[in-house]
């Protein structure tokens, strides 16, 4: 079953008989023989299966990821985390801020309450239910990760997209714009991420928003460079030239051709940034720039608060730490396997 | 393991103490921070001091002191036979040389962070430099009446005296070192002061204290002391002592546990019991501080006394004391620790009663009170060991009483700014006394209108001025008691607790007497 | 090559200039000034205002910046408000500690990461590979300060194998020549100092190494895997070369190129990463000092240190680029 | 009148270098004074070694490369002088087929959208102004959409693909099919001229033949004009009416396809022709081979005089390395005047007056000891 | 008999790749051929038919895992003295293979740039093989390397030794690769599309070089290419591969003069020939290699064949001797074999009209879309 017809105009079915056919077949009428042949061929080629329709690179990547244990582990972790985060108020048995058991815990005397029937993960240093705090904390943590990533993604994409588009299509003037934007990005890159975050946090004052903005800003140059790099490499591809040859406007080429094709690495990076954001947020909390509001427990804050009790009640620190590590691991695994799945080198 | 690190120095291993930060200068006069004063107390002595382990003022370099009737002339009888580290002898002229130097400082020395305590106690200078805007001078003169008698005159009486004479900033230095410092200015251009060399490199400054400064290693934030054998009192228990900075509270504890250090200050309450259990010496200081919850009365609801009372009833202060503060702390009934004269047993008290609080709020028409509540991050203060925990507990209590709390946190520097400017309706703050005088507490807060409190009570302010200006000690104390009662009626805030800050030592060490003013004399400590 | 270096150095000027303006404006806008950090709690509003004035902070920002620029041209980064010592002095006082720490971390990361990544690639799909990949992912995902804490609790507090704080045991006498403890110790043959300093470097070094180690392991692995599939490796095999020749000359040499870049980038980030590690281990380096400076609003220190760190970062990258071009003739040609 | 007339076209790429600000330190003379003209309905084939500037020339016509100098007359207008917006519109009439069939298709666009893009950009299709009168806007839009869709399907069918391909993505097709899509993309705009840059060199032989047949077929049906660029002389000769041979940025010989094959004059053309393998052992065994020494010199630093003199077996002591030969009609002979050569000694070579020096090629052939 | 044993006898070579989730791919499936000293054997076929895999299998360069190699490839390693040492290249130890590679067996790859290590100077890459197999080092090795480079026609070899691959032109890179291959005078050389990436003029140089090598050194050359033109000029015996199996094997004369397998015929019909009259359409094979069916189901070529019958789908067709009469009445030794149940007789080939015969293609196309 050829997918390509021959362009030979004389190749009209049934024009002449088939030469050299053996005697046995001569008895069967020609058209029947032909039909049988077609059927048989179709049958033989049938099991090869169709390549799938309307699928793109993403779909293919998805297919590949479905077979990767790394991707599956990552996806399961992330899915679990997201489900917990979304439904946390339903899952948490108690209010995360209720100090209902406040008189049972004495941090000043080193007396803590471990896991027990009513409190599966025990109580924290102020007599709050650790399990509920972990569950509700997942939501805050997810929020931090997502918003920080969006901040970095959004501004990074604008900067990088601008630079990339200008560099590829803007001619001489565009290269100047690209140059200027890149200088700014270089400047941001040269500034140590954590210090950048710390100063941002100090500027805005400690809060959840601060952490999200600080972590997000620190990611801007990474996204920007990535997108710019991808756009420039895509911009040198022949399909861009083809679009230009069609007479498509430059702005449209940048937006509908180059940009969508450059988003792959950026999307991969977003997944990885989610992990980074969660870890960086924890670091900021450790430095005292985390969420001040006890009403919204967040793992990073919980971890940094619990460090004080690490030797007497290690579990207070270990639960949120594990939460952070596992979640970050989930996103990293997912991102890495996505990267692998999208890698043109690994694609046939 | 007792010879770890013993390779250097003498034959005895050095005693290593961890502070929270490096010192700022070798000359305490230029400093404002506790770490510098901790260092300077080992090296320099002041005219007056506090009793070992207490807050009573006792003689230091002066054995006797007297004030004139109007309290403006102070006469000190110096201790005989006191020798400076550089061999100079202590006499009245030496003391006056110090005071004269201070009074005649010029230029950047007059900047408020280079002569903060001078300006606070003695006002401005002989010639005030407008650039730095120091206040009017209060110091008049220092005269050596005879070899061992010093007469210091001030322009007006203040309850700052005689306590002010005990401030570590006024450690007396030897005449030779003063000479050597002469002409050493605070350098750098405007806005970029660099401290003079004598305050950075050991060798110039010489005091009379039990230790001499051997070395200040700035890259390690480490200062090394040697025993001063010519000390007039009991010689120091350690031959060598090192104070090194570990800013992080957990790191300090872990370093002690790992035996990298032999003592540290600012022990977290949570660590006290475990450390004691593990065989460390964790003596508890006497209480000399107050932690309070301030009600900023520019806030509409807080201007209502009933609301303030309601909030006072809403907070379960006992729980804070029981679960968060170190053992030995207690609920404060007034803005004044009970270890200090002027404490009144008769102040109005507020029981924890959430329902009553709710009722009162309802009466005042604030059932749905929403209020911002600030706390500082990244600090522990002796009176406030875990700000966030305390904040969380209070928040929970307030919410129990139906108040909706909006949490805000600031870093310490910003926190002071915000609370000072009255931007926080509710906030946590406190004070540790510098010396034994009630004015050092309530006077700091309620001597006049301030945006920190938003209190505007002329009667209170007048009374404060009157009492504090009274040179008669007994009358003054009675006055302070009344004032305390008055304050608790006005209820500008809720005193929460007075809690004893702890200091920890290795089990091998006989700790010094611990001081409520956190002014330990490490000469008293020794190896077991 | 020289042209390239000069060009890069000249490009540094606008970058640093821009960065300094950015920092200047930004930092001065931080809420809460030094007047709150430097004076005691009971200072009055007048006193604070006076301090601001005497520090020159009441001048318009532009004026402040210009005088800052003027000084910077003369190599003066101002003085720390906290310690009143010149910022440059402060930097070089603390830089050796951080540098030693960073070098230790990098050494750990490289000496462990390279072989591990290489082995993982060679034994692709085996338990070793799985462990290396898993371990490095875990390394990336564990918050550094938490790891540092765990290391300290286990190896310093409980086992007592390594010291938990400082750069050198207190009281240990040493000769200070360069500020680099280990180097000085080696130069003066003070072996006890060297041993002591090294012991102090182990735990913070490990903690700081965790991320570079993980990154290098993964990069090496990926890079080796990629190179092993390259045509020229096939050619080398077709020439019948010994396996070791193929692996060293043809595989490793090419595989290490991208790793070199990564090492450079990581080295830059180590100085910033030191903030966390240093504060956990009370290690007296630039990280902890900068952190303290943010708390006290020590503008000159913040501006100066960040500029210096950024310069260093750019320099390290320049070095990487140069070494890259030495290693890769294709780049050299350009 | 020619459909496309290129006069003395030059495309130089600046080589930039500098410490702070980039200075231009030289130029890559990718195309260095080429003139040619293409008649309507003709196929013009351009051959030459890799790097000789064929692609650059093709792109310059479409102004996808900056033109340094020269004129490109198309349809009575000098494209080199058009402002960018008019040039953009002009592109509807000038289309291009690229070498890499996959690379020149946006992987994220389905075939339908790839083919529609050009129509939408140039607003082709839909009711004419007259027809559109009185129609509502949405109606007009509907008609336009329908018409464009029809045109797309039409183009697809012309290249032998069915309308089912519309929803599919480039990577789902085989190489030959992708190249057909590339051709359809050019075709749908109904251009006057299609520039094919190495349209078959990335394809397998059998597919290559399919595509070549298709191109010819389309020309027969639609009367297209082609500029076919390729490095394979056999391919070019197979499809072209006129063949131009390029060497290092300039045209060395131009003649009607058959004439060029029968009487190649320029030494480069001769050696090129002798190097093309013929799938016939008898021919191969008897053929005389002119082997060239060395490689193409760098276009940034081309040899003086005749660009080919460094490799030319017929090189003479005079002129060759000093004077650049012009592309000129061949003197004498039956030359219809269409045979043009850029060689000082073309006639002498043709007549056998000048013989190739053996030694140059010798060293390679008998180089093995 | 020893003298008549071929240098390398490949018998029923098969290579299957296993990939997780993909099952088994038989890239090479029972290919047999022999190589003789001083002779050139060609492997021809479209992309993906298993040419490279065959060569890699012989060189033992297939990946360690996920590959199953069957059959045998017996090579005569030495015939010094009476004793003949033979070894099956597919079975000998890795160590032994490494010793053979480079010294007895050498290979030239398709892409000269990617086949050279970009960061190692050419000199080192040449001398390392001398060091490995001939124990040369230092100055003698360098001198030998210079000599080698000179022999393959690299001008100024002394300077080139210190240069890196990217500084060389494509032709020179390929020469350098050839220099490495011939460094130890191997008895067997495999060239995997050595000229595909090169220009025709350069290709001619390289082919000439290879030809000389074979005639002068008596090396056996396995020439892999998809270009029948190249094969026509160079090879003595030719194997046409399709989908992993040889479909036709013959000496070059008969193969080009009287091809019998429809695939071979199709390939020949696909090539535009420089010497063919212009305007004649090509007659390519339909479809592409993607359209194969499994050999187990019948002839893999059937879906593209204009010639197939039901018989073709009745299981794998065997390799059979071509019935005589197809040209020269040659002896039984020179085998012309094909794998076709319904071959094209020579008479038919001549008659093109018959070849362009009925097909089911049209119908199929509609079904598939
Ligand atoms: N954008 C560019 N900048 C600088 N030089 C260029 C650019 N594009 C092409 N060149 C140079 O111009 C010369 C001609 O290139 P061009 O691509 O036109 O050659 P070509 O004949 O199409 O070769 P090929 O057969 O390899 O496609 C080459 O030396 C090339 O390096
Ligand atoms: N490592 C591998 N894993 C799986 N399949 C492979 C591998 N290498 C080759 N193949 C498959 O084996 C078949 C034959 O490949 P091979 O490289 O031998 O083709 P070729 O004839 O050399 O083609 P080309 O002309 O493109 O070089 C192809 O279908 C290819 O997909
Ligand atoms: Mg080209
Ligand atoms: Mg191949």
TrEMBL record, chain A:
**What Pfam families does this protein's entry cite?**
BPD_transp_1 (PF00528), OppC_N (PF12911)
- InterPro entries found in the cross-reference section: BP-dependent_transpt_permease, MetI-like, MetI-like_sf, OppC_N
Predominant localisation class = membrane
**Domain ABC transmembrane type-1 span(s) in chain numbering:** 138-335
Question: Where are the compositionally biased (Polar residues) regions?
Answer: 1-10
Q: Which family does the entry's similarity section mention?
A: Belongs to the binding-protein-dependent transport system permease family.
Region feature (Disordered): 1-26
**Where are the compositionally biased (Low complexity) regions?**
11-23
Q: Does the keyword Transmembrane helix apply?
A: yes
Q: Which domain of life is it from?
A: Bacteria
Membrane topology of the entry: Multi-pass membrane protein
Please list every transmembrane segment annotated in the UniProt record, as residue ranges. Answer: 71-92, 142-168, 266-289, 317-338
Location of this chain's protein in the cell: Cell membrane
Gene3D superfamilies, alphabetized: MetI-like
Q: Which UniProt keywords apply?
A: Cell membrane, Membrane, Transmembrane, Transmembrane helix, Transport
Know the name of this protein? ABC transporter permease
From TrEMBL, chain C:
Q: Which Pfam families match?
A: BPD_transp_1 (PF00528), BPD_transp_1_N (PF19300)
The record's InterPro entries line, in alphabetical order, gives: BPD_transp_1_N, MetI-like, MetI-like_sf
Annotated membrane-spanning segments are 9-27, 101-121, 133-155, 197-216, 255-281, 301-320
- Looking at the record, the residues that make up the ABC transmembrane type-1 domain are 95-320
Subcellular location per the Swiss-Prot or TrEMBL entry: Cell membrane
Q: Which PANTHER family match?
A: DIPEPTIDE TRANSPORT SYSTEM PERMEASE PROTEIN DPPB-RELATED
The protein in question is named ABC transporter permease
Look up and give the organism this protein is from: Nocardiopsis exhalans
UniProtKB/TrEMBL annotation, chain D:
Query: Looking at the keywords, is Nucleotide-binding present?
Result: yes
Q: What Pfam families does this protein map onto? A: ABC_tran, oligo_HPY
Q: Which UniProt keywords apply?
A: ATP-binding, Nucleotide-binding, Transport
Q: Which CDD domains match?
A: ABC_NikE_OppD_transporters
Q: Which InterPro entries match?
A: AAA+_ATPase, ABC_transp_ATP-bind, ABC_transporter-like_ATP-bd, ABC_transporter-like_CS, Oligopep_ABC_C, P-loop_NTPase
Q: Cite the record's Basic and acidic residues compositional bias ranges.
A: 130-146
Gene3D superfamilies xrefs: P-loop containing nucleotide triphosphate hydrolases
* Ranges for region Disordered: 123-146
Repressor among the record's keywords?
A: no
| GO molecular function annotation | ATP binding
Ranges of residues in domain ABC transporter: 4-273
To which protein family does this belong?
Belongs to the ABC transporter superfamily.
List the NCBIfam families hit by this protein, alphabetically. oligo_HPY
The record, for PANTHER family, names:
D,D-DIPEPTIDE TRANSPORT ATP-BINDING PROTEIN DDPF-RELATED, TRANSPORT ATP-BINDING PROTEIN
Q: What is this protein called?
A: ATP-binding cassette domain-containing protein
Q: Which organism is it from?
A: Nocardiopsis exhalans
TrEMBL record, chain E:
Could you tell me the keywords of this UniProt record? ATP-binding, Cell membrane, Membrane, Nucleotide-binding, Transport
InterPro entries attached here?
A: AAA+_ATPase, ABC_Ni/Peptide_Import, ABC_transporter-like_ATP-bd, ABC_transporter-like_CS, Oligopep_ABC_C, P-loop_NTPase
Query: What Pfam families does the record point to?
Result: ABC_tran, oligo_HPY
The residues covered by the ABC transporter domain are: 8-268
**GO molecular function list:** ATP binding
**Compartment(s):** Cell membrane
Superkingdom, natural source: Bacteria
**Membrane topology, as annotated:** Peripheral membrane protein
Which Gene3D superfamilies does this one have? P-loop containing nucleotide triphosphate hydrolases (3.40.50.300)
Family under the similarity heading:
Belongs to the ABC transporter superfamily.
PANTHER family membership:
DIPEPTIDE TRANSPORT ATP-BINDING PROTEIN DPPD, OLIGOPEPTIDE TRANSPORT ATP-BINDING PROTEIN APPD
The name of this protein is ABC transporter ATP-binding protein
Organism ancestry: Bacteria, Bacillati, Actinomycetota, Actinomycetes, Streptosporangiales
